[in-house]
Design a protein that fits this description.
homodimer, about 280 residues, alpha+beta, Jelly Rolls, Arc Repressor Mutant, subunit A, five-stranded antiparallel sheet, four-stranded antiparallel sheet, 12 strands, about 35% helix, DNA-binding, DNA-binding transcription factor activity (chains A, B), transcription regulation (chains A, B), Transcriptional regulator, Crp/Fnr family (chains A, B), DNA binding (chains A, B), cNMP-bd_dom (chains A, B)
DNA sequence: CGGCACGTTGAGAAAATTCAACTCACGTGG
DNA sequence: CCACGTGAGTTGAATTTTCTCAACGTGCCG
């Protein structure tokens, strides 16, 4: 119960250029961050002049299940995750959700809306979240003022582009096992970078959401987890994961045939038998 | 035989801020474009002050098979297609190519390199191409000068992001037939927008490249084309395509079972038979 | 203590791949 | 000028992978 929340996806106070820090930082249990803090959070090289900027960005809390933005909603903000876990997703014509990513601390999202001025995907909180609102116009204006910041914004978008390209490549060519393995390695990396254990962590999303993200069914995800568990690559119990053999997960391409589908070893010549 | 080309992916003349238009536009058979022309080519709203900019951007010609940039190559340019057809692709650890897109006239590419300062994918010409070189530093500086241009660059990157998200969603959830259908519809749209016929056109890429792009094997692509041909959605002969039923292609989810795989109608009860 | 969403597991079906043979178009060199 | 080699494309059959459907555990919230 972190804070009282207005409602679904429409924070009524607009982040921007008002506010003195000491006072407003505490008001309503909300926080405000300056440009320097944001650069650090995003792991951008905080450039010299950033410290001089007095612009403050508002934090807003969301509870699990709440949407930060929805499909079709007019775009005017970017969002930075200060804490908590989210998912971003597309809804296709048939009404099926397709998960695009799982933003967490330090991740920037909402950039899908820049082009059409409307969001083309939705973002929802998987846990309680603390999100920093970054009015796009404010950010663009700052970019025009500070060359390093402009480049940093381009860079952040480029990074997202590269990430999605890797995703496309993975979906296009890897087996289900390899996809699940890489998903775990990726989570492990991100938890480690956040200062948490990269070896033991809790999944914040359902098998369904993982499957949607990886282009697999929830059953295939579940079976693959079980198979990894059986051969000692991981230990998994519900949402609690322990990475046991990171290297194997990183390099895994395909499981030996007999593991995933427990079938008697097949003779190399499947010729005359089983009459 | 459009022009004499230096070599693979290393145009020796650096585009930038030199050059008087009338003279250099013809020198060496090369062309130079100003900011206004580029905005038009990219279908950006050409803003007022763009016309005043005297910066010129160099064109370079590539022949089919040549690479515009390679993986690992230091990034300093963006590229705009003035004419011709290309592919962009990732090479995975196993050495397999994974096609990411097929840039054509009006498309901007090379943005993958902004983040890491090195290109993470390669771009190769499928036909003879005329490419405009846009030094990234020059573009960023212009963005800082013109608010509308800065927004337009963000917008172009956002559009690419949304395009890739749609791709991820497609790879994650659509059948092979639906993917191929959408691929054809997408090509049709783009040809039409370029002023060519959206009904009849030539594929510039192999079945292998289409398959790689769609996350399918070349055989599946070929079979799907044949099936579409058989039921009259398209007419196809080698690389020549005629779109016969655009609406059906747009809405296709899955082919009726008997079409793709010509098998005798199976009894609803596959019980006692085939002794 | 239900009710219910989440997760696991199995068996059979469907989709797509693999392997293989064959055809076709095109360009090169004899 | 035509034979021939080669890369591209087509098609078939068998196999593999993944999905679908279904049943059953499990843990949590009201």
């Amino acid at each position: 119960m972190l804070a009282h929340l207005s409602d679904n996806a429409s924070p009524s106070i607009i982040a921007g250029t008002n506010a003195r820090v000491g006072f407003d930082a505490q008001r309503n249990g909300k926080l405000w961050s300056n440009l320097k803090e944001i650069c650090e959070l995003l792991q951008l090289p905080a450039f010299a002049s950033a410290a001089d900027e007095e612009v403050l960005f508002q934090h807003v809390q969301f509870k699990a299940g709440q949407r930060i933005h929805t499909i079709g909603q007019p775009f005017d903000m970017l969002y930075i995750v200060n804490s908590g876990f989210l998912k971003t997703a597309l809804i296709d014509e048939a009404g099926n959700e397709h998960v695009l990513g799982f933003p967490m601390r330090g991740d920037l999202f909402g950039m899908d809306g820049i082009h059409s001025k409307y969001h083309t995907c939705e973002a929802a909180a998987l846990t309680s979240c603390d999100i920093i609102l970054v009015p796009f116009k404010t950010l663009a204006a700052l970019g025009r003022k500070h060359a390093e910041l402009e480049i940093a914004i381009f860079s952040a978008m480029s990074r997202e582009l590269v990430r999605e390209q890797a995703m496309v490549s993975m979906l296009g060519s890897l087996s289900s096992e390899a996809r699940v393995a890489r998903f775990l390695v990726n989570l492990s990396d991100r938890f480690a970078r956040m200062g948490y254990s990269g070896k033991q962590f809790n999944l914040r999303m359902t098998r369904q959401e993982i499957g949607s993200y990886l282009g697999l069914t929830l059953e295939t995800v579940s079976r693959t987890f079980s198979a990894f568990n059986k051969i000692g690559l991981i230990a998994i119990d519900q949402r609690a994961v322990e990475i046991r053999d990171l290297h194997a997960l990183k390099t895994l391409r395909r499981l030996p045939p007999s593991i995933g589908r427990p079938k008697a070893a097949r003779p190399t010549q499947p010729s005359a038998e089983a009459a």
